[in-house]
Specification:
The complex is a heterodimer.
Chain A lengths: L2 H7 L13 H4 L4 H9 L3 E6 L10 H7 L3 H4 L10 H5 L2 H12 L1 E9 L5 E12 L5 E10 L1 H61 L4 H33 L7 E4 H15 L5 E5 L3 E4 L1 H17 L7 E8 L2 E8 L29 H13 L3 E7 L3 E9 L11
Helix pairs in contact in A: 8-9, 9-12, 10-11, 11-12
Chain B lengths: L4 E5 L3 H13 L3 E5 L2 H7 L7 E4 L8 H9 L8 E5 L4 H8 L3 E4 L4 H12 L4 H6 L2
The chains are: A alpha+beta, B alpha/beta.
């Protein structure tokens, strides 16, 4: 804004342009600026005296604020403010601030003549005479209502987009869960069906002897037990995801829990494949759930590497809490595509790659997250797989876990 | 010519054992393996006429098995994919499998498919007929 030039026109305000002079002639004199300002319609541009009374008016001011020059000149600028702003002394405060700083910008609701509000962007600049004495202000106001509404719509769109992304994410997560669930259920059902049908086939062929019957019953028993286990896991996952599972947090030494888990595996595994590197690490956690995490990771490592390659469990205290690391020396999880290995832990996962990972890791991640911790995995062909869990000293307060 | 050879590869012991037993009863020469790597060992000096192959297995899955198989000098046996995994059709085309059976399945259907793939000259029908 050419404020310094406006200072020159001030004394001649409202002198009508003489028709006898050409615009080219006018453009050399101060009159041109008055004409220019008066003609601007998108901005309210006017002069205000040092006491806050309006001295000039332009087309833009008339259009934006609804007052004609004759109605408003001489009135105080506070008429443009809302009742609340007037009570709070905002008009005077703005004038004082402009006087102090030379120029201020203010955004807020202003009131038109008809009482309606508009969102204004206001520039208020001081004008000084040749002696440096304040003789008023130049006020430039722009109606930003539509811009603001557009911004609001844009913000609303962003919120809606986020909500939609969240919902889509939830659907994807549910689809992933269903894919895993169906795979996990189909496997034992297939075993059960084949075991039953082989008995039926033998009966049909008259070859159903006692050893075949006994083997068939044992296989059916194994399949049914596996099925029951998968169902328990599914219910556990569902309950964890709903946040319906209450966690009981207490001070626990993660290394002691790990030692107990390792002891249990030593009894099951023919060879002592599980090696330990345990340092005390005391955090607030749900002991039974941490045991489940370590059990799942060790179970997984044993499954995905062959005997006698060792599985190593490391527990260490960290400044932030505890670290649990379970590594194997297998060939690096034998799933089809290397990129799909750890996708259960990422949002971008492709359901088709996951089921082989089973529900155990799904549950593990859920438990770790409820503790406010993180889980990550690294795998390299023939260099084995390492799962790394970090747990904070304290579970999150706002977590849905009980305490 | 001796009995046709079938290799059953599945990490589920119940399924593996049952299929092995049923196919043996049906007159096939059967070997079983619990993952791709184990299957490669079972194929040493013993060429299968058909491989019944699970997709997702620990240690070495169907993809790892198939690429190792392709690297051998011998012609690779036809593969029947047997899996509960989603996206089985795309896995089958990637692996060049001759057919796909999704779990759970009827035992009779699998036996029929094995017979179809290896040809008519074998099995219980062959020993009693022809």
């Amino acid at each position: 804004m050419a404020i310094t030039e406006v200072r020159h026109v001030d004394r001649q305000r409202h002198a009508a342009p003489r028709a006898t002079r050409t615009l080219a002639e006018l453009s050399h004199g101060p009159e041109a600026f008055r004409l220019l300002v008066e003609a601007v319609t998108d901005y309210a541009i006017f002069l205000v005296g040092p006491d806050g009374h309006i001295l000039t008016w332009n087309l833009g001011a008339e259009r934006i604020k609804g007052y004609k020059a004759s109605e408003i000149i001489g009135k105080h600028i506070s008429v443009f403010y809302t009742a609340e702003d007037r009570r709070n002394g905002r008009p005077e405060r703005n004038l004082r601030a402009a006087e102090k700083r030379g120029n201020i910008e203010d955004q807020g609701w202003r009131v038109r003549k008809d009482g309606t509000r508009f969102w204004a962007d206001v520039q208020l600049s001081t004008l000084h005479d040749d002696q440096g004495k304040l003789f008023g202000y130049a006020k430039v106001t722009r109606d930003m209502t539509e811009v603001r509404a557009a911004e609001d719509r844009e913000r609303q769109l962003v919120i809606e987009r986020q909500a939609r992304a969240f919902a889509e994410d939830a659907v994807r997560s549910r689809d992933r869960f269903l894919a895993i669930a169906s795979h996990e259920l189909k496997t034992p059902v297939a075993s059960l069906q084949v075991a039953v049908e082989s008995l039926l086939l033998n009966r049909e062929h008259g070859t159903l002897d006692v050893p075949r019957t006994e083997r068939g019953i044992e296989r059916m028993d194994r399949a049914v037990k596996r099925l029951a286990m998968v169902l328990d896991e599914l219910l556990d996952v569902a309950s964890l995801e709903r946040g319906a599972t209450t966690f009981t947090f207490s001070n626990v030494d993660v290394s002691r829990i790990a030692a107990e888990v390792i002891d249990r595996f030593a009894g099951v595994e023919a060879q002592d494949r599980v090696a330990a590197n345990l340092q005390p690490a005391i955090i607030r956690a749900d002991a039974a759930r941490i045991e489940q995490v370590i059990t799942n990771l060790v179970d997984n490592a044993l499954k995905y590497s062959t005997s006698p390659a060792p599985v190593t469990v490391r527990v260490a205290a960290q400044p932030s809490g505890a670290l649990i690391e379970v590594s194997d020396e297998g060939i690096g999880l034998g799933l089809g595509t290397a990129s799909g290995l750890f996708e259960p832990f990422s949002r971008a996962s492709n359901a088709a790659d996951i089921p082989g990972m089973g529900l155990g890791l799904f549950i593990t991640r859920e438990i770790v997250e409820r503790h406010g911790g993180q889980i990550s995995g690294t795998a390299a062909p023939d260099r084995g797989t390492t799962f790394r869990v970090t747990l904070p000293k304290q579970p999150p307060r706002n977590g849905h876990g009980g305490s | 010519m001796g009995a046709r050879r079938v290799l059953v590869v599945d990490d589920d012991p119940t399924l593996r054992e049952t299929l092995g037993e049923v196919l043996t009863d049906d007159g096939f020469d059967v070997r079983v393996a619990w993952n791709g790597r184990d299957a490669l060992e079972k194929l040493e000096g013993w060429n299968a006429d058909v491989v019944i192959l699970d997709v997702m297995m620990p240690v070495m899955d169907a993809f790892g098995f198939q690429s190792a198989l392709d690297e051998r000098a011998e012609p690779s046996p036809p593969v029947i994919l047997l899996s509960a995994a989603p996206g089985l059709a795309s896995a089958a085309s990637e692996l060049g499998a001759v057919s796909v059976i999704s779990k759970p399945f009827h035992l009779q259907d699998l036996i029929a498919e094995v017979r179809r793939v290896v040809g008519p000259m074998n099995g219980r029908a062959a020993t009693s007929g022809v």
